Structures are given as C-alpha cells and as structure tokens.
Amino acid sequence: MKLYSQIGAITLAVIVIFVQPTKAGRWSQFLQLSEVTKMKYDPLTQTYWFGTENNGLWRYDGQQFEHISLPINNEVTVTALALAKNGDTLWVGAHQGILGYHIKSKTWTIYNLDYIQALFVDARGALWFSLKTSEIAGAIGKKDKTGWSRWTLPHQSQVLSIAQDREGKMYFGTRGAGLCILDSAFTWKCFDSFPLTLQPIVQAIAIDRTGKKWLGTSKGVFLLDPANRTVSRLPRPDLSSLKQTDRELRETIHAIWIDDGEMKWFATSAGVSVLDSTNRRWKTFTKENGPGSDQVSDIIGDSDGNLWFGLLELSGVSKLNNNWSELAATDGLESDFAYAVEKDRRGRLWIGTQAGGIQILERGVWRKPALVGDICLDSLSGVSRCSDTPFVTDFLPDQTGMWVTTATCGIFKLSDFLTITNRFRQNCPVDFPSDRVNAIAVRNDTLWAGTDRGLAQVLLASRKVNVYLENTYISALIHDDRGRLWVGTDKGLCLFNALQCDVSGLPGYVQNVAINALDRDQSGNLWVGTNFGLARFDGVTWTQFSRANGLPGEKISAIGVAPDGTVWCGTVDGAAAFINNQWHPFRTDEGLSSNFILDISFGPPNVVWFATWGGGVSQYRRTEIGPNTYFLETFDIVTETNMTFHYAGYDLNTPATSLRYQYALGDDSGSQLSPPDWSPITPAPFVELQISTEGVYNFFVRAVDKDGNFDETPARMRFYKVEPRHGGAVTIVDSTLGKKLKSLRLYVPPNTLPSGSSIRVQSAPVDTSELAPQQFGLRFTGIAFALVPQPANTTMISGRPLTLTIFYRDSIAQQFEAGMLAVYRRDPSNWTLIGGTVDAKRQALTTALTQPGTYALFVDFDASQKNSSSKTHIDNLTAQPRMFSPHGDDFAENVTISFGLDQPTAVTVKIYNLAGRLVQVICENEMMNAGRNAVHWEGDDYGRNKCPSGMYLICLEAAGKTATKTVMVSNQ
C-alpha cells in the first residue's frame, strides 16, 4: 500500500539530500527553577516535584510551576526527595534534617537530624535515610510504623544512594566503602574493592528487570550481577577524542534512569549518556544538542515516556519529549532506508529495509529470520532459487501470522514462530505472474496479489492461481465494507468488477494518475493516495485533499488507519494525521527522522510507526494531555463593530506554530458552550468578528494540539458591547483586580468613546513607597486597577466622565469608617485624590473618572482632619446620561449625578420638576469626602412611583453653594 515506483531512479539524489535531522524540537527547557538538585514524579496525580539549591521546593502540575514555602526558610538546598507509598506525603531531605510535606493539608512536619544525603521509600512503605555525621563518616536510618532505627556502616563511609531489589535486600552506594548490601537478617556485605582498585564513589543505583544492579560512580558505570557475586566495569564509550578533564566529567555519574525500553540514561557532569537495550551502543546529549546544561544532576521519567533532566549552572530543567524516537543504523537497524514496518499481535516490530530480508525487534533484541526460497521449475530457465535476503515491500498481519510481500521473491507467510507456512512466487504455483509483489489483500480463503504483471487471485486451500489485468502494474489493493476489491495501478484507480476494471463514476483526479496507497477507515470510507493528493470516498461523495487543506505534500506514499480511527498519511514531504476534520502535519523539525515516508503502522495504543527513506524507522507516541489557551489582549468595554480577538496557546509536545484553535461567541446566559457552537478549527491565532448588537458577550477560545486534544478549560473573556451614541454600563467581575474583589461597575456615557475604540480594565500593582510624605496616613486596601483605552492614544470626550462603582469586601467595611475610603489616581510622581461617595449599606463607593490611568482604593486615616474653614467649591456637576428611562426602553435605567468637592462637606441633592415642585431628595446634609463624588437617581418620586416623562432639575447644595443640571426622563 505504499509508493515504490520511481524509488530506484531517485536513490542517488536521496542519499545526498537526506541527512540526520536535528532534534531540537524534542527538547523543552524550564528556567524558573534555577539550580535543580533532585526530582520526583507522582504518576497517580501526574505531579512533578523539584528540589533546588538555595531555592527550596517547587511543584509542577503540568501547567504551571508553584513554589512551596518551606517551614524553615526558602533558601534551603534540597538534597533528597522521596514520596510516601500512599502518595500523601513528600519527604524532603535538607542540611537541617527531614521535612515531611503533607500534600492534602499542605502542612509540614520537621525532624531535626543531621545533614541528609539520601532518601528512599521501600516496598513496605518504610522511609530509609542516610545522614552525614562528620566530614568522613555517616549513618543510615529507617522510619516505619514501629518508630525510628539507626545503623552505623561497617566502614568509615557516607551513604549517597539507596535502592531495593525484588527480594527486599537494601543496597547502599557510599563514599569510602563502595557498595554495601543489607539483607533481611541485617547482615552487611560491602564491595569495597572494585576492579583495577578504582575504589569509586557510588553515587547512583538502578536495578533492571533481570536483576542486574547498575552503579553510577565517580569512575564510570559498573555492574553487579543478579547473584551479588561480582562487580564489573562496563565497557566505556570511545572517549579518545575528549580531553582528560572532559573524560573525567563524562565518567562522573550522578543519577541513572532505566526507561520502559530498557534504555539506560546516565546523568553526568558532561551531559547525558545513553546506553541502548543491547548494552553495546552509546549516545550522548550535551547542551549543544539536548539539555540546557552539561551539568546534569538527576533524571526522572513520567507516564507519557518523557524524560526530565535536573540541571545546574542556573539552567533549571530540560525535558526530552519522547513523543518521538527512532531506530536507525546506530540502533541495530541494517539500513536507514526502511520500506515497510508493522507491529504483530505479539508486540514484535517487523522492518524491511534496503539491506534486504526482515529484521524483527522483540524486547530490545534483533532477530533476522531467513527467507530462503524453494527450488521452482521455471519453464524458461529451468531451476530458479530466490535470494536469501529478498527485498521486502509490505507486511500484512492476520490471526495466524504475517504475510510478507517482496520485490524479488514473491510472497511469504510466516507463523508466529517465524517458520514459513506459505510461499508464492513466479510459476510457483503455476501461473503466479511475477516475483515483484507490490500489494496484497486477503479475504476469507482467497489471497489477491498486485504485481508488476497483473492481478493474481490465489485460492489458498487449493493453491490455484487466476491472473487478471495482465501486464498491468498493480500498486495497491483494498476490500471495501461490501467486499468489493479496489485496485490501484500506475494508470489510476478502478473497481474490480466482473473480472475487469470498472472506472465508471470515478472523478478525474483518481484516473490516469499513479495510485500509491489505498486504505479504508472505521466508517467505511475509502482513502486513495495519488501523486497529486489524497481522495476520500464515502460511498456517495468524493472529497479531494491537497496542500491547501494542510497536507505536507501532495505525493502520497502511504496511508494507515490507527486503532482509534485516526487516518494517517505519509508523503515525500512529511506525514499528517486527519483529526477533527483537519490535517495536522509532522515533519523533521518536530522529530520525524525523515520527511520521506514509505509505510505507516500502529501499536501499542497511541504509538505510530513510520518507515522512512534515509531516516530508519520513526516512532511517535500520541498523548492525551490537552494544551492551554490564553488571551494576548483583553478588554471589558468596546464600542467598535468589527472586533479582533488575539489569543495563543502552549503545549509541551506541540510547537506553538503547530497549534490550532476553535472559538465561539455567546451571550451572558451561561459559562459553557456546547460543541456545536464551536467554529471550524483554524491555524490563525486571531479572528475578526462583527458584533453590532449591544449587550454582554462571552468569547471562548480553545487550542488544539497535534494529537487532536482540546484545551478542556477554554479561555473565556466577558465584555460589554456599547453603541457609542447610546452609552451603557457593565459590571466587571474579576478576582485578579484585587484580593477577593467582588466587582466593578463602569458606566460609559453616550459618545464618550470614539467609534472603533475600547476600554480595558486590568489588574494593577501598587507600590506604597510611591506615596508622598504627606500621604503616610493612607493604607492600601488591595483593590487597584488600570483603565486603559485602546488604541493607546484614544481620549475620552471632555465633560463626559465615566462613572465607576467599586464594591468592596466585608473586611474593609468592618474595620474602617465609610468616610475614610477614597479613590486615588496614580500620577507620574504622586497619588492624587479622586474621592468617591460611599454607600455603606451596599458596601460600594461611586466616583466619576475623566481620564484613563491607574486607580486604587485607599483608607485615609487623616480624612477627619482635612476639613477646613475656608469656603467650599463645587466643581463640574454632571448627570449621565442626560436621558434615561426607569423602565429601560433601550435607555439606561438611572442617572448618575457626579460632582467635585475641594474638601469634605455636607451635601444635599434634590430633584424638582419644571413646575418647581420637589420630586425626590437623593441625600440631605450627608457628609461627603473631597474629590469626585457620585449619587444615583432611579427616576422615582417620594412614593416610589416612576416619574412621568419630561425635564427635571437636579439641585446640588454644599456649604451655601448651589449648582443645577437638567435631565430628561422618558417613559414610553
């Protein structure tokens, strides 16, 4: 089912073009942690713990880092970490002793001991620890249900590492005594005499599945056999090209990690060294091609197969995204040019390469079954024998074994025990058309073989052969859900019907073109790969895909359908997965070993295999962890009709440029949207929407990663659309604006903001050191925000202030008198009083704002002393809006009356009709603070009745001064 035509013609060019790609995209680095000394991973909660040097403990939940405050001081150096067996306690070793962090209650327990050097939790849940009692000596201890125990080692030594085998024996790596073992009878055995009298310091211990103990030391890697009899030094990688100091650094092992594939990873002082599962081949990653530092202190693996490396040199943590890995010539593959790959039902990986024959990888061991052809009678040349290493073109597994097609020896069928059970080649049986087989399809007891000389039908029970479409190059075969056989040739696609090719009803883009691959998905759709793109047939409609739809290239070389139904395609320019009706491309810059894909296979779950031309075999591990989404800019009130939303996402395993997005716009009726409301997936990190109707809206956006995972908690922005000539009010609920702040209410008068502008309310920090000496009586309440117009040069129209109401929390109301509260605006060198009118019953302060800036709510302890005998001035009495309706009727339901006072004074506000009759008293002789004050009128009279339509007069009296303003009430 793959592309083979023309490969021979391009082989020379490919060898020149295809080079080993860089793997920079597989590495992520986190700099928040600085100097990382120890790490621990909790697979149950998928939580990462990081101990640092002089910066205490950190926690990472997969989305953000959190600094955990220590009970002693946060500048502690963490020397060891261990997780309790039940997962409820994290044990932290430090110079000051052992700290127990109870994860659920977030409380600490302190055990004052000596300098802790290692921690380990054994199979029964007991905590083992080692401590330093002097410069040369130390001890080990154990804490279990019975209490505390303590032992002194047989030699003057210090324990640096601890491990336990399946039999329960404890292993201690030391400085001074080599490796020591403590059995269940508490009997000691120490290997203090290593080969060549090296006497290394044992700093790390890891035990593999076979029971071998891997020892990381100051002199390289050593092995203790399963019977604990002999210690041998592992043959070192070739370090002859390194300087003496670099060799010593490479041999200084700080930590060992053995992954699921039995690869051994060693943290050294000169990068990361990797030993493959055969214990023969080494690889090295340094800061030039991997981690962010050569000083690697620790290694851990997570549930997704990713590896994390703790780094020194202020480099934090590096993560190796093991979504991608590869098998190449350096890993035991006979050739980097792979034509076919398949996983059988026993979990073995079958690979056909340019070197010929089959290689099978099982549990890290390579096997190469011999495909020796039988002696067949050829009518033209007499006796003919197939090569021992036939050129493999495809694999097809079934319930009893694996079918193997070749380009030189026909077809083989191998059992689960790798014995040949069936063999078909030219004239063997009689009339089999060719030794070059490009594709097979098996249904019931019939095998169909596509060759370079036609289509062969083989009745397996009788081995009888029928040949159709003679002298036709057959490149791909597939049965559809109705049992019909679709045939791909070098001249196009056809449906094999009545012993001939039927092309009726087929679109032009699958006719007269080379067909390279065929497959069928779980919904019964037929997928056709050509030299000019991909096509899908659902039984009624044909759909074509090309680069314009997201494919990395249009020359399709392979198609595969994953167990979860995802369709994958390979091209000569990369691979792609069809997820959520979108193509997600994969190329070498993201980890693929070569962009030229020749075959695709699957297994175990969520793992995809690619046979590549020049890059061996690539493995991709799909994840189920979704990305995160956030807004690049936010706003709360807008007046423009065409609005552009900018957003972004991040994902540990998907480059930001490869993320896709879905968005949705809804009203304020709920916080969640159902899937049908989401837009189609788009690669653009922005969208422009037209919103002409006033009201409160919610804009949602979620990122989609390369595996099709959505952000389960979409980013949400709530904003108010205001018609510029009408004006309107919006309540902004945002806990980031202040500590436990309930909400802000902002009223924008008509025509205050120019068309196309908006106002954003953002959280703002407050530095109390900016207060002038005469303002030392001010205390910050924790409520501060910035009023930011967009564009930045937007100016609010003079004489039309915005009305702001701040709802403050209970603690402020209980501690301070209402008259002490006031809003201040931050100027370049000072905080300027704005003021505000306090409604103690509502726990609200209202004021008017005439310009953007940063505002904060302060408590003024000197407010009562600021009254003066000088004359009071009333400044800028305004009423917004000038027309309102107590019933709504597309207007505001109340009017805000704002004014300025130069000092605290008693204020009276009354409402009269044009006949001079008093309608309502808003306040009478009410003390108000200096600055901008504001009160509200709901359009009612003394009897709580709505006033009739008409003009009304607002009369303000303060310290013998009077100011008036008219307002219109409309009740239609």
Task: Looking at this protein, list some descriptive labels.
Methylamine Dehydrogenase, Chain H, 3 helices, 5-stranded antiparallel β-sheet, Immunoglobulin-like
Walk me through the structure.
This protein is mainly beta and 972 residues long. It has five domains: 24-236 and 243-327, Methylamine Dehydrogenase, Chain H, CATH 2.130.10; 330-621, 7 Propeller (Methylamine Dehydrogenase, Chain H); 628-711, Immunoglobulin-like (Sandwich); 722-865, Chondroitinase Ac, Chain A, domain 3, CATH 2.60.220; 871-972, Immunoglobulin-like, CATH 2.60.40. Helix content is 3%, strand content 49%. The protein contains three helices and 83 strands. The strands form 20 sheets. The chain has a nine-stranded mixed beta sheet, with no helix packed on it. Strand 71 (821-826) and strand 72 form a beta hairpin. 42% of the residues are buried.
